[in-house]
Amino acid sequence: MDKKVIFAVAGAGKTTHLVNSLDLKRRFLLVTYTDNNHAILRRKIIEHFGYFPSNVTLYSYFTFLHAFCYKPLFLMQMRTKGINYENPPAWTQKLPRTDNRFYVDNRRRVYYNRIAKLLETNGAIGDVRRRLEKYFDAIYIDEIQDIGGHDFNLLIAICRCNIELRFVGDFYQHTFDTSRDGQTNRRLHDDYTKYKKRLEEAGLEVDATSLARSHRCTEAVCSFIRKHLSIEIYSQSRNSAEVVFLSKQEEADRIYTCRRTVKLFYQENRRYSCYSDNWGNSKGIDDYHDICVVLNGTTYKAYKSDLLNALKPQTRNKLYVACSRARGNLYLLPEQMLKKYKSAREGH
Q: Is 348 domain-assigned?
């Protein structure tokens, strides 16, 4: 049975690869984490077939975990009423893992980051595998790099299913975790080699070459990412573009008011009345052309010192996500130059 994980670079076409691998004969389950990618997958599936086929099931990760894995097995027994997406109180860490209060809050909601652990503790992983084998012939998981905590342990257990498995992701686009809980897999994404080994030990073939070139980013942008972030990405795009650092106030004012160029902030983009988003939240978005990455104080200082590759991994990864949204030019701008536009509160 074909079981593989494909590591892709930004803009290499991993979503397109998954969609092109679908057919109308087999039963497919597609799972992805972010809302952006869920919407993109749905749109591309409809574009590919002209409609959304009945043999394809598309889930966001927590819909899959709660509706497919948990509810059929434990809803009647646990009598829960939805998901609590807040982190559990610290005192629950002291509870035995057989105590339902470890998994369920006082409003009967199951903690999002412990659903997979609940399945494991109650010996239900085999039942989940059997359900997957019963209803699907192939499981495709997008954004595998964002699966963390107990969810990663569930992913490894799913690898024992006797059906086709295909996982895709970009290790360096790890900006969010599906969940975190104590020390469980807390250092999972610290080292690419160790991460890859965990997947190989689960029986997955690792493919790091099929999606190794970006169709989106130009060589100028790829070269910037390689040089400053130490992430190996190369271009397959024939477009020409440039990377420009904006140092004059009039340049900053012009780019700020430009409605065609998105401004990507580290955070708090809603405090600026312009066409904008945040670095991490832009992941999965594929329809920008020119972009402006706004460097906050920490990243601007690192840029000036040629130390962007020494940023904390999560910050570096978010910056990589932001820079790799560009199909055209990449502009860099210190956030300090936009200070006069920043409002005291979001949306004002």
A: no
pTM as predicted: 0.88
Among 205, 225, 229, 227, which Cα is nearest to 214's? Answer: 225
Domain final position from 188, 207, 226: 207
Question: Contact, 199 vs 169, CB < 8 A?
Answer: no
Pairwise CA distance, residues 57 & 50, whole Å: 16
Q: Which two tokens stand for residue 333?
A: 């701008």
DSSP string, 292-334: EEEE-HHHHHHHHTT-GGGS-HHHHHHHHHHHTT-SS-EEEEE
- 52 and 164 fall within a common domain: yes
The Cα–Cα gap between 311 and 2 comes to 37
Residue pair 112/62 in contact (Cβ under 8 Å)? The answer is yes
Rounded average pLDDT per 10-residue block, the chain, 348 residues: 93 94 98 88 97 98 96 94 94 95 96 96 97 98 93 96 96 85 84 94 94 95 97 92 96 96 96 94 89 97 97 94 97 96 72
Domain region containing 293: 216-341
